[in-house]
Design a protein that fits this description.
This protein is rod-shaped. The strands form 2 sheets. The chain has a 4-stranded mixed β-sheet with strand order 2-1-3-4, sandwiched between helices. The protein has a two-stranded antiparallel ribbon with strand order 5-6. 48% of the residues lie in helices and 17% in strands. The chain contains 6 helices and 6 strands. It has 2 domains: 97 residues, Glutaredoxin (3-Layer(aba) Sandwich); 32 residues.
């Protein structure tokens, strides 16, 4: 899978330049492979981008501005949706990629799975690991107070 970033190499807008730099810099920091496709110097890239941004994602004038992000032919979003994914720590999902082992998102998923695991207690009802630990502490305290008597 190739992440495609449609950019304008010769944009007169500093806002667009900053957004493009933000996307590219973030992908490089995460070591995500991507390809830059220039819409300023390549008419085919410009046409392809404009045709493949879904209608509901196009601005009212109908012309989407860079950066626009795709995973192969699948539209991921524009800068605003990328920024939201970045803030929510869901960039891999936004890009349609599996988070790598050890990433914050992957660690959070694994932690969620661990919290969902339950063991059966002595009286055969489901007991979470925290409850089991609490029971052990209470039993140790009881044994300690009986030994003092």
């Amino acid at each position: 899978m190739v992440i495609k970033i449609f950019l304008a190499s010769s944009s007169g807008s500093t806002a667009i330049k900053k957004k493009q730099q933000d996307v590219v810099g973030f992908l490089e920091a995460l070591k995500i492979d991507y390809t830059q496709l220039d819409i300023a110097s390549n008419e085919e890239n410009r046409q392809w981008m404009r045709e493949n941004v879904p209608g509901e994602m196009k601005p009212t004038n109908g012309i989407p501005l860079p950066p626009q992000i795709f995973n192969e032919e699948n539209y991921c979003g524009d800068y605003d949706t990328f920024f939201n994914a970045k803030e929510d720590n869901t960039v891999y999902e936004f890009l349609g990629l599996t988070p790598p082992p050890g990433s914050k998102r992957k660690a959070a998923e694994e932690e969620d799975q661990d919290e969902g695991e339950f063991d059966k207690g002595e009286d055969n009802h489901l007991v979470s690991e925290e409850e089991e630990e609490l029971q052990k502490l209470e039993e140790e305290e009881e044994q300690g107070s009986e030994a003092e008597d």
